[in-house]
């Protein structure tokens, strides 16, 4: 028997565009109350208006940890709980290491690792108090297998996987489920950082997928029966391995 998402309180980081926005749309369609967390105030205003009364916007800069804590406090004050936290925000840097910009690496690693981990930590006390909750992190297939074209990004997602698997065991006794979605290449704004030849080759091969595929995977994870969890869910374009 699957669980209903009706009236579940959900917070999503990086929710003003791409995967986060599509996940918000699917969750609202399933009956959830969704808080979109992002630093893009204009996009948040536009998208929450588009999504309707079940969508709420909170301006959050994941590099400013006080704004994350304040967002969690606001959600709890308004709703009394947080049922789902989707740590989705992330950045991408690809290319050869010897040609890379270490300053760009620092920014990406800070967001994909430090900021993501701290955002999860921010919601844990409330979920432990209520003895329930789902935490899902947007990881990547790069967190499961090394992708030669993106060594620094791959390293960041391997860190996410290690975090998911250890935190899951720490908080299981509180009724909290922790898992990750590992998508292959998704058509989002992050693809602007891809090498053009690689992008064109993937388009030609049919090795890209839409954000809705990740949103559907998230719904699947969250609706599993109580006592059952999806630890890792890999979602790939059909021709990815080709």
From TrEMBL:
<dbReference type="Pfam" id="PF00106">
    <property type="entry name" value="adh_short"/>
</dbReference>
<feature type="domain" description="Ketoreductase">
    <location>
        <begin position="8"/>
        <end position="184"/>
    </location>
</feature>
<dbReference type="InterPro" id="IPR020904">
    <property type="entry name" value="Sc_DH/Rdtase_CS"/>
</dbReference>
<comment type="similarity">
    <text>Belongs to the short-chain dehydrogenases/reductases (SDR) family.</text>
</comment>
<keyword id="KW-0560">Oxidoreductase</keyword>
<dbReference type="InterPro" id="IPR057326">
    <property type="entry name" value="KR_dom"/>
</dbReference>
<dbReference type="InterPro" id="IPR002347">
    <property type="entry name" value="SDR_fam"/>
</dbReference>
<dbReference type="GO" id="GO:0016491">
    <property type="term" value="F:oxidoreductase activity"/>
</dbReference>
<dbReference type="GO" id="GO:0016020">
    <property type="term" value="C:membrane"/>
</dbReference>
<dbReference type="InterPro" id="IPR036291">
    <property type="entry name" value="NAD(P)-bd_dom_sf"/>
</dbReference>
<protein>
    <submittedName>
        <fullName>Glucose dehydrogenase</fullName>
    </submittedName>
</protein>
């Amino acid at each position: 028997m699957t669980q209903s998402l009706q009236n579940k309180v959900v917070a999503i980081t990086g929710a003003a565009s791409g995967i986060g926005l599509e996940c918000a749309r699917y969750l609202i369609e399933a009956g959830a109350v969704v808080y979109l967390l992002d630093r893009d105030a204009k996009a948040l205003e536009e998208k929450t208006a588009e999504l309707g009364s079940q969508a709420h916007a909170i301006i959050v800069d994941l590099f400013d940890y006080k704004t994350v804590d304040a967002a969690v406090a606001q959600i709890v004050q308004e709703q009394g709980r947080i049922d789902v936290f989707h740590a989705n925000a992330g950045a991408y840097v690809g290319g050869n290491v010897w040609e890379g910009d270490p300053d760009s690496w620092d920014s990406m690693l800070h967001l994909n690792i430090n900021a993501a981990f701290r955002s999860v930590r921010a919601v844990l006390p409330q979920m432990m108090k209520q003895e329930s909750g789902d935490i899902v992190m947007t990881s990547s297939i790069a967190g499961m297998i090394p992708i030669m074209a993106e060594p620094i990004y791959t390293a960041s997602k391997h860190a996410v996987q290690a975090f998911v698997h250890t935190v899951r065991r720490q908080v299981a006794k509180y009724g909290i489920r922790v898992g990750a979605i590992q998508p292959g290449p998704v058509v989002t704004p992050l693809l602007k950082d891809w090498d053009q030849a690689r992008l064109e080759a993937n388009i030609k091969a049919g090795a890209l997928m839409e954000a809705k595929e990740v949103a559907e995977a998230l719904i699947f994870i969250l609706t599993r029966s109580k006592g059952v969890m999806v630890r890792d869910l890999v979602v790939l374009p059909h021709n990815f391995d080709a």
